[in-house]
Each structure stands twice: as C-alpha cells, then as structure tokens.
Give the backbone structure.
Amino acid sequence: MLEDSQAVLEIWGRSSLSGNVQISGAKNSALVLMAGSILCPGKCTLRNVPNLVDIKRMGQILEALGVKLKRQDDVIEIDATKINPTEAPYDVVSQLRASFFVIGPLLTRLGTARVPLPGGCAIGARPVDLHVRGLQAMGASVSIEDGVVHANLVGNKQRLQGGKIYLDYPSVGATETILMAATLAKGETKIENAAQEPEIVDLANFCNQMGAKVTGAGTNTITIQGVQELSSIEYNVIPDRIEAGTFLVAGAITKSEITLSSVIPEHLAPVIAKLNEIGCQIVIEDEAGKTFGGDIQSKRLRIVPGELCGTDIETLPYPGFPTDMQAQFTALLSISKGNSVISETVFENRLRHVAELQRMGTNIRVKGNHAIVQGVAMISGAPVMATDLRASAALVLAGLAAEGKTTVHGLQHLDRGYEDLESKLRGLGAKLERIIPEGT
Ligand code: UD1
C-alpha cells in the first residue's frame, strides 16, 4: 500500500482473468470498530483489519487522543485505558469522514469531545446534523465553533441520558454515532429509521460482545439499554462487501470466471441480484473459512459471466443497491448491450467518474442525478483521473475491459479503500503496473 499522489496505474486491458481472490476485512466496519474500541477502558483486539490509508489515519486520530495502538499483519490491538480529552487533529479528520465518528464514544466515556468537522471523499456536502441532533437528544450540549464540534454533558451530569431519536434519513454514520454513545448512557435509547447496513450489525455485535445491550440492529429500529462499563474483547471484522462487489464486477466486465473467498453472500444480495439481471450467474459455495459476528460462516462466490445486457439501477440505503457500487456498475453497464439508467439518490455529487469513462469511448450522459448509458461494444484505453474512492475502482475496471493501455491518475483515492488491489488483480491474471515517478 502506497500513499503517493504522483503514482499512476498502467493497465493493459482485455486479459482474461481466472483463479481465486481473498476478500479483506471491511474498511467501513473496521473504521467504526476502531472508534468503538475507545468505549472500553482496556484493550480490544480487532482481527481481519485491512491495511489501508484510511485505517492508518483512524489510528493516527486515536493515538492523538492518547490511545495506544499495535498493528501486526491484519490484527490491531487498541488500548484505550487512558484517553485524553484533547481535540482530534484537524489535518487527519479533514481527510477522513469516518474519523468524526469518535465523537460518540469520546462524549459518552469522557463527558466531553472536540472533533473538527470531517472531510473524506468529494462526493457531496455530507453534513453531520443528524449525528449532532442524536447527541443532543441524549442531553448533550453541542456547538460548532471555528469548524470544531464541541460536545459536552450539561450541568453536573455524569452520563448521557437515553432518548428516542427519529433519523430524518437512515444515515450510516449517524446511526453508528448514536449507537455507540447510547451504550454507556443512562437508560434506554431508541433509534428509529436507523440505517440497516451490515456494518451497523457488525458494530452492534462488537458492542454486545463488550457487554453492551443492543437489540434490533439490521432493522430500522435499534434499542440500546445503557450499561455502566464495557470490557475488553477480540473481534473479527466482517468481509468487505464493496471490495467483493468490485471483484464480481471485474469478473463480469472481463467475461471471466473467478472465485472470491471470505464473503458473506447476504451482504451482497442487491449486487448479486443486479449481476443476475445483467446476465451473470453467481454460485455460492461452502468454504472452510472464518466465522463472523459470532455465528456467520463465510462462503465462496463464483461468478460465471454471460452475455451482458443493460439494466436500471437506483442507489438506496441498505438493503437497497449500495451507492458504493454505483461507479463500478456504471463502468460495467457502459459495455453491456442496450440502455441503462443509473440514478444516484444517496449522494448529490457522485457521478464524476462519468466524464472520465467518456474519455474511454463510453456513451453516457448525465442528467441531474441520473447517468443514461447506451452500451457500446468496445471501449479503448486512455489517461483518466480518479475523483473519489469508488470512482477510482470503476476506472480500473474499465481499464481491464478496454482495448490498449489505460493510465489511472489520482491513486491516493484508491489507496484509501482497496487493500493490495493491484496484486490481487495480478494474481487473477490482469496486466497492470504502478508507476512511481522518479524523485518522489
Ligand atoms: C457511510 C460509508 C460510505 C457510504 C455511505 C452510504 C463509512 C465510513 N462510510 O458514509 O462509504 O457511501 O455510508 O452507504 O462507513 N447525511 C446528512 N446528515 C448527516 C449525515 C448524513 O444529511 O448528519 C446525508 C449525507 O450527506 C448523504 C446521506 O445522508 O447524502 C448518507 O450519508 P451516510 O449514510 O451518513 O454516509 P456516511 O456514514 O458518511
């Protein structure tokens, strides 16, 4: 994994892929579990943590708060016996939206938190109003001063107070913030219209293993009975459903049969349904894999590609089609026969990859939050610029299918969220190479 904005990825397309790829732990789950670890005044060990720039940044935030971290391979030991009530460092928070999620655990454990407004991918405004309103509903006073969110317990209160919170939108991050804050609050908290993503269930399982009392995660109503203290555990992060989805698209776009190990197929239900509609078959196979969330056994997925045909896609909160797979499917549909309409409803500025895909000979028009795709038989390699994390994956996928050479710039986005993407693709037979300019 490199963190080098000057590097480019050169891809020579039209190779057939074959073989098996190991799916890493979920970035979005690992990030929130790292934040959640500070709920426990002791050591938590997270396993199956991907080696990514975003994970490194979250580690830097925790260390700045006085937490001790040890990393070996895919295991991170987080010792939050001591945490300082200092401000989370702006230069890291501004690069990683998920780092804002420390606000809930900090506030509920220390009674005070100061976290700068977050950054992350340039895919929309991404406010934090729902997080803030949730914490206020639990009795916190929250103000924003000079770009920093200050959250405090009011008066001489020792703990947050459980409350009833209806989210105007089932925000993943806000559900996570409130869930974590509520684990140590006094009394019961109910989150209505909660996000139902697998990462929320993973967080609830993690908190429950530490001794929290969370029920209903994975449905739209989550109930949390606050407890006095949480204790140390070891925990396996769930597999990354977006990385798995990206590799399924790699199989489909190159018309190659490949298998993916360490997958939880139910987490990919909307992605598998769309791949079936487009003309690919996905076979679920048993494997002697790992167990996640207490009792979920991982499986292997085999994609058997077929003649690709267009379909319509609308991104939605889980269990709808994930916005984090939209760019990859835009690339796939651009070479699928017929017309497709892709509607992005979760983020307002998440079709910027279209302009880059157009450089490769695709026929896509953007109208508002819709991409109207007319499938073409062939696309050709070109220099392209990644604009965000999943857009970078879409360009790599398009490069695998294109005639000739594609050069992907802006790899700092890719490195945020895909562990060893190049070596994993190379292991499947793709021809690609990272070029690092001399002197950098
Ligand atoms: C998480 C994921 C991200 C994924 C997204 C939607 C992490 C680290 N990131 O991001 O990969 O694309 O879920 O599945 O887990 N919103 C508000 N106010 C708020 C919070 C959110 O208006 O307080 C809006 C956002 O601007 C966006 C929508 O709600 O339009 C969804 O955002 P949210 O579900 O919160 O996404 P994140 O948690 O940031």
